[in-house]
Write a structure and sequence with these properties.
By secondary structure, this protein is an alpha+beta fold. The chain is built from twelve helices and six strands. The protein has helices spanning about 30-45, 70-90, 110-120, 140-145, 160, 170-180, 185-190, 215-225, 240-255, 260-265, 270-285, 290-300, and strands at about 15-20, 50-55, 60-65, 105, 205-210, 300-305. Helix 1 (about 30-45) packs antiparallel against helix 2, helix 3 packs across helix 7 (about 185-190) and helix 10 (about 260-265) crosses helix 11.
Length: about 300
Amino acid sequence: MPRTARQKSYDSIYHVMVKSISEVLLFKDDEDKIKFLKIVKDAQDQFEFRTYSYCLMDNHAHFIIDANGSDISKVMHFINYKYAMYYNKLYGRCGHLFQDRFKSLIVKDDRYLFALTAYVHFNATDLKGYDKNPEDYRFSSLGIFLGKKADEFELIDDKFILSMFSLKEAHARAMYKDFIFKVKSIVDVQREEFKKEGTEYRSMRTILVRDLSPEKIIDIISKKFSIDKLMLKIKRANEAKEAKAVLCFVLRKFCDLRCSDICKILGGMGQSNISRLCSYGRELIKHEKYKKIVEDILEQRAIAI
């Protein structure tokens, strides 16, 4: 039976769920959960999506993700592929880890978004020891919303949802806590949500418009590094390695390109080499020396929706 086309857009908020195949635990211990969230952070650095809520269970995980101009399919392929490679190598297995495609539904309105955060966070109540205090579960974002813990994995944008309750942080957290512990009936309804189709949710958010051409990016990088554009296309030009790494990272981030697409643009480099350069570039832009390059481009791309 053919698959149903996935409903998606580049400026939507999604409820995303990933689940392992029936005979395998997705996370065997806390170290697996830590690794998964670090991969999500790497994906966030790469694609600039926003994460509004998450909760990791033993055989599945829930996220509320704002695409922010990215392709949700590419985002989840990045996350699932990286984690499956880690998992299979660590546990000496091969084959599929995730059950079918990831599930995703577009969030349709404010009420649905509020109920959805409650649903995602209340998954932790199914875990032993957290039925009365889900906010204490390490691998859920509820404690961050309530101000009980720091954002250990630097993933969560809680300000967007909290600002809908109040512009004063302390008051917003108190109101969110009051809300979330009073919506159990709504949460129960959400358990049927993946049987339905969602419609698009919009608000006064900004999205990252990814319409820069690869040629424009190459021109920007060559000027920033004071290097000839031809050097960026020479495979063994070691003196241009950092420039090429940042270029590959930025091409994926701002042009929404796959590694195979970048191969065609730069020529002479295989996908594995491009992938390594993207990873290297992602680490480089964390340093002050290169961070300004991405910030300069970001300032030009964000628009209100």
